[in-house]
TrEMBL record:
GO MF terms held by the record: phosphorelay response regulator activity; transcription cis-regulatory region binding
Organism this protein belongs to: Streptomyces minutiscleroticus
4-aspartylphosphate modifications at: D51
Name of the protein in question: Transcriptional regulatory protein CutR
One of the protein's GO biological processes: regulation of DNA-templated transcription
Function recorded in the entry: Member of the two-component regulatory system CutS/CutR, involved in the regulation of copper metabolism. CutR suppresses a defective melC1 gene, encoding a putative copper-transfer gene, probably by altering copper metabolism.
UniProt cross-references to PROSITE patterns, sorted A to Z: OMPR_PHOB, RESPONSE_REGULATORY
Keywords: DNA-binding, Phosphoprotein, Transcription, Transcription regulation, Two-component regulatory system
Length: 217
């Protein structure tokens, strides 16, 4: 899942991004509304975590732009105000969910995951294919009943491949969904991660390399 965090309190923004990355999400961060509009125009995001009171361009206007463009991106709006009227107004603008500050990080993560599931064709909470079971909420992976311990990026790559339901996923698509924009697209990070993932999943190999196209399970 790819997420954009838009928050002018830089310490909070960076803390949220770090936490979501530990949950195997690809996260970009900006600190004002103008930068958010720029990123949205370039990258496809599953979820935007959007502070309402932003400098340069207000969060309401960023949300309206996402709705106006007809993007499948889901918006989780944040605000320091807990007033019901503010929450209602944010939802009427086009936000998909609303979370007042301060918030528990576990709740933020759960809401982001729930919104991310709504950006694509609904799939069961636990993904299963080729003897592999992956639970995105519990961050657990099993192969033929054996638990497999994965690093966050390995987990993210496996989730993308399982969600493709047998379709080929290119290295570029894996970079877009599992890494943030600071990753050099010319590195071999995808190939190395897939190699490590294959080894951890064990024999026989379930991740197939399709020459010139990408990978599939």
């Amino acid at each position: 899942m790819r997420v954009l965090v838009v928050e002018d309190e830089q310490l909070l923004a960076d803390a949220v991004a770090t936490g979501l990355r530990r949950e195997a999400m690809a996260v970009d961060v900006v600190y004002d509304g103008a930068a958010a509009l720029e990123r949205i125009g370039v990258n496809d995001y599953d979820v935007v975590v959007l502070d309402r009171d932003l400098p340069l361009v207000h969060g309401d206007d960023v949300c309206r732009k996402i709705v106006e463009l007809g993007m499948p991106t889901r918006v989780l709006m944040l605000t320091a105000s807990g007033d019901v009227s503010d929450r209602v107004e944010g939802l009427e603008i086009g936000a998909d969910d609303y979370l007042p500050k301060p918030f528990a990080f576990s709740e933020l993560t759960a809401r982001v995951r729930a919104l991310g599931r709504r950006t694509s064709v609904p799939l069961p909470p636990v993904l299963e294919r080729a003897g592999i079971k992956l639970d995105p909420n519990r961050r657990e992976v099993f192969r033929e009943g054996r638990e497999v311990q994965l690093a966050p990026k390995e987990f993210a790559v496996l989730e993308v491949l399982l969600r493709s339901e047998g379709a080929v996923v290119s290295a570029e698509q894996l970079l877009e969904k599992a890494w943030d924009e600071n990753t050099d697209p010319f590195t071999n990070v995808v190939r190395v991660t897939v190699m490590t993932l294959r080894r951890k999943l064990g024999e026989p190999p379930v991740i197939v390399t399709v020459p010139g196209s990408g990978y599939r399970i």
